[in-house]
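stage 2 :: seqdesign
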C-alpha cells in the first residue's frame, strides 16, 4: 500500500504519506486492538482459565478462525 501511494504521486512525498496514513490507520488500530485482546487470551497462566479458554475455542470450531478472516484474508490489491 505504501508503495502504491508513493507511486501515485512520486513528486509529493508528504501527500503520499498522508494518504497512506489515512488509508491504513483504521485497519492498523483495529489490528492493535485485536492483538491486545488475543494477548490477554493466549497468555493465561491459571490452569482453570486455560481449560475454559480451550473449551470455548473447541466449541466455537471454525467460527473462531473465521472471526479473523478480515486479518488473514486481507487483499491489499482490493483495498
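stage 2 :: out
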Amino acid at each position: 500500500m505504501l508503495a502504491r501511494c508513493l507511486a501515485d504521486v512520486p513528486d509529493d512525498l508528504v501527500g503520499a504519506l498522508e494518504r497512506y496514513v489515512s488509508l491504513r490507520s483504521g485497519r492498523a488500530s483495529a489490528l492493535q486492538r485485536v492483538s491486545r485482546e488475543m494477548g490477554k487470551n493466549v497468555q493465561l497462566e491459571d490452569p482453570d482459565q486455560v481449560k475454559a479458554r480451550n473449551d470455548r475455542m473447541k466449541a466455537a470450531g471454525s467460527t473462531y478462525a473465521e472471526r479473523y478472516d478480515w486479518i488473514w484474508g486481507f487483499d491489499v490489491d482490493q483495498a
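stage 3 :: structure notes
- The radius of gyration is 18 Å.
- The first helix runs from residue 2 to 8.
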